[in-house]
Amino acid sequence: MTTPRLTTTEYNHLVETGVLTKDDRIELLNGVIYQKPRVTPKNSSCVMRLDRAIYQQFGSKTIISRRGPIELPPDSEPEPDFALLRYQADYYAEAHPSSADILLIIEVADSALERQRDRDIKLPIYARAGIQETWLVNLPESRIEIYTSPADEAYQEMRTVQREQTVESAVLPQLKLAASDILPKS
């Protein structure tokens, strides 16, 4: 028996009619509803560090979204840990951000299972949507993986940044951060 797949339109209808609520910790990935993992203190701390470091560089020129939905039709509405969005005066009040609005996505993985879901499911979705750069902050291994050059359902390039190195965005040249400012102390 195959699992029925949902479109983003059908998924949003379930939310609008109250079948799914804002309290449900779920996201739509490739037409399948997944339960989101619990946010650990390390994960939350990392997202707050990212928020501070990136805000200091970009200020009010962009919008920072923390665990907010992005709509990637036809069948995905992930909620990345962190997204840097193009500035929009209404702060996306009328519609969730789409791939054209995204400057950078960052996923934070605090376990092997999260890392696997991010790499095997979410990264291909982001690449298919044409999102130019995605970072995977790998907390257990204390490193940051930077994925660029999306084609079809894969990123063609990946580089790894260790704790003592500098993270430099390929897409946003002005974005340079010390990896130690992002990664929690071991």
Question: Care to describe what's here?
Answer:
With 186 residues, the protein is an alpha+beta fold. It has one domain (38-182): tt1808, chain A (Alpha-Beta Complex). It is built from 4 helices and 10 strands. The protein has helices at residues 8-16, 41-58, 112-128, 179-182; strands spanning 26-29, 32-35, 62-65, 82-86, 102-109, 133-138, 143-151, 154-162, 166-168, 176-178. The strands form 3 sheets. The chain has a 6-stranded mixed sheet, with helices on both faces. A two-stranded antiparallel ribbon has the order 1-2. The chain has a two-stranded antiparallel sheet with strand order 9-10. The longest helix is centred in the first third of the chain and has 18 residues, at 41-58. The protein is globular. The termini are far apart.
Notable characteristics:
alpha+beta, single chain, tt1808, chain A, 186 residues, 4 helices, six-stranded mixed β-sheet, two-stranded antiparallel sheet, 10 strands
Give a quick summary of the entry.
Helix content is 26%, strand content 30%. The protein is of the alpha+beta class and 186 residues long. Strands 3-4-5-6-7-8 form a 6-stranded mixed beta sheet, with helices on both faces. A two-stranded antiparallel sheet has the order 1-2.
Number of strands: 10
Q: What is the distance, rounded to the nearest whole angstrom, between the alpha carbons of the first and last residues? A: 45 Å
CATH superfamily: tt1808, chain A
CATH architecture: Alpha-Beta Complex
User: Any idea how many domains?
Assistant: 1
Rounded mean pLDDT is: 93
Question: What level of helicity do the residues show?
Answer: 25-40%
Question: What is the approximate shape?
Answer: globular
The strand line-up of the biggest sheet is 3-4-5-6-7-8
Radius of gyration: 16 Å
Structural class: alpha+beta
Q: Examine the coordinates and then state which fold CATH places here, giving the name of the CATH topology.
A: tt1808, chain A
CATH class: Alpha Beta
